[in-house]
Amino acid sequence: MNKRDYMNTSVQEPPLDYSFRSIHVIQDLVNEEPRTGLRPLKRSKSGKSLTQSLWLNNNVLNDLRDFNQVASQLLEHPENLAWIDLSFNDLTSIDPVLTTFFNLSVLYLHGNSIQHLGEVNKLAVLPRLRSLTLHGNPMEEEKGYRQYVLCTLPHITTFDFSGVTKADHTTAEVWKRMNIKPKKARIKQNTL
User: Closest Cα partner for 75 from 95, 50, 57, 92?
Assistant: First the structure.
């Protein structure tokens, strides 16, 4: 990637917006026109979008099969994706494909059908993740929901559209000590 293209790839660019398109499978994006906003999308010479934001909210997606492949078809630099909005779909888990976007800083997953709080563990590998939404998923009903997320992802600054305070981090740490058992160190056995 040349420096000029990278500099033209920007979060400031309008998002590639496929919201409210009744999309059932990711592959449908290839044949779907994105919504138009006030500013036109900038495109590379190859016709791919130069944005770092992909909005797929308010559709009927239940999995992210072929997400990488389709992102590569739509975006000049999919590895620079910084904002993915998958809110209000039918996702039941956090697909590991999302953990391959290391520049991801905003991830909206609210209003889906994600059951298990442990799904959050997958996101711990995202070094730049700062804003996450998960409310409106069944996992929200689990005891310690907010504390679990904050101690699993200590670098996020906004969770469920609320700022994360020092007090939130302190509460999460106390909750962690009271509720999560530390992994026991293996004791080497003397075999003489």
Answer: 50
